[in-house]
Amino acid sequence: MSYIVKPRFHHPGLQKNDLGYTRRDYEGTLTTLCGGCGHDSISAAIIHAVHDMSLAPHQVAKVSGIGCSSKIPAYFLERSHGFNSVHGRMPSIATGANLANRELYYIGISGDGDTASIGLGQFCHIVRRRINMLYMVANNGTYGLTKGQLSATADLGSKTKSGEESRYDNIDLVSLAIDLGASFVARSFSGDKDQLVPLIQAGLSHRGFAFIDVISPCVTFNNTPFSAHGYKNTWENNVVLSEIDFVPMRKEITARYSAGKEKEITLHDGSVIHLHKTNASYDPYDRENALHYVNEYKKQGKIATGLLYINQSQSDLHELNDTVDKPFNRLNEHDLCPGGDVLQDINETFM
Ligand SMILES: Cc1ncc(C[n+]2csc(CCOP(=O)(O)OP(=O)(O)O)c2C)c(N)n1
Ligand code: SF4
Ligand SMILES: [Mg+2]
């Protein structure tokens, strides 16, 4: 991976957040992705979201696998913790890091190849284990980095630039995540920043496994009129099930209601999301309903976007395993070695 550091100077009038940082303080190195790649819009949306939430860069840990998409963490939050791992193995790294330090905000970035092909097993288990993190897939329906092979999310009948047609049904990561028990599931489009930024903020504020499938066109290998994940098809067939506003918990909460059209959801940290539903019968708390809508629109060749499912009462991995509150690097010798009496008590439980 090449690292080209951006110049640090910026306009003195740039807006600052509660910590006194501008958006420039949340950037990463200069992108090396192709001009127009959807993945760059995802980096920009993350920078926007984290800056506006006033999270300090050192509170965030970013993890990824391998692919053009997995390079995204190099382009945002260069002063955060980070680990660019092995193809399809980001979930293992995220799980270990999360167990060692539960106080950080974890952002996992993966691709459709990284998650739905080589990493599918790891993905299933990280959802099942309820890791408290935001997991984003930059989904372009192709293996961009290795020059455009069809991935497992490419729709049946869609074609890549070289004319290769997908003969298999695709894996829908949103349906899979809901089915496996993810407690926050959304889909968006890299070109729709108004929708993507509040979804990222809500996903980061959610306690539990938050998943966002982001359609992110690969302009070099999969952006033809026959590419289901291209710009044309996504703009034309995007059905917005819920538009959302995110209100950070530090600000005064002012709810806007317009008869039966909005739903307000208070997240665990006290922040609020307002759902503006385009479909009055859509209920994001209803798991079966969410799966039904996603599949119904898929049958019509349409892509349902927005916050599709949320469950705020699910326990995360730490609660399920009653782990220690403190990050491991703050445990002292006494915590780690409490003495012979404690060991004796533990041994007696096995007798
Ligand atoms: C174990 C292993 N197998 C195969 C590869 C080759 N490889 C690198 S990236 C990639 C696919 C990336 O596709 P995706 O995750 O969709 O990311 P994109 O480049 O499309 O953003 C493959 C097959 C590898 N690096 N490691
Ligand atoms: S090959 Fe495709 S996915 Fe990779 S940087 Fe270029 S446009 Fe983006
Ligand atoms: Mg891909």
CATH fold descriptor: Rossmann fold
**What is the CATH superfamily?**
Thiamin diphosphate (ThDP)-binding fold, Pyr/PP domains
Structurally, the number of domains stands at: 1
Average pLDDT, all residues: 92
Strand content: 15-25%
Structural class: alpha/beta
CATH class: Alpha Beta
Associated small molecules: thiamine diphosphate, iron/sulfur cluster, magnesium ion
What is the N-to-C succession of helices and strands? HEEHEHHEEEHEHEHEEEEHEHHH
Helix tally?
11
Overall geometry comes to: globular
Uncertain segments of ≥5 residues (pLDDT<50)? none
Helix content: 25-40%
Instruction: Report on the biggest sheet.
Output: 8 strands, mixed
Structure description:
With 351 residues, this protein is an alpha/beta fold. The chain has one domain (23-321): Rossmann fold. The protein is built from 11 helices and 13 strands. The protein has helices at 38-52, 90-100, 112-117, 120-128, 173-180, 193-205, 231-237, 287-299, 317-321, 333-336, 340-349; strands at 60-64, 81-84, 105-111, 133-139, 142-143, 149-150, 184-189, 209-215, 238-240, 242-247, 262-266, 272-277, 303-310. Strands 2-1-3-4-8-7-13-9 form an 8-stranded mixed sheet, sandwiched between helices. Strands 10-12-11 form a 3-stranded antiparallel sheet. A two-stranded antiparallel sheet has the order 5-6. It is globular and about 70 Å long. The N and C termini lie far apart (54 Å). The structure holds thiamine diphosphate, iron/sulfur cluster (SF4) and magnesium ion. Magnesium ion (MG) is lined by residues 67, 69, 111-113, 140, 142-144, 151.
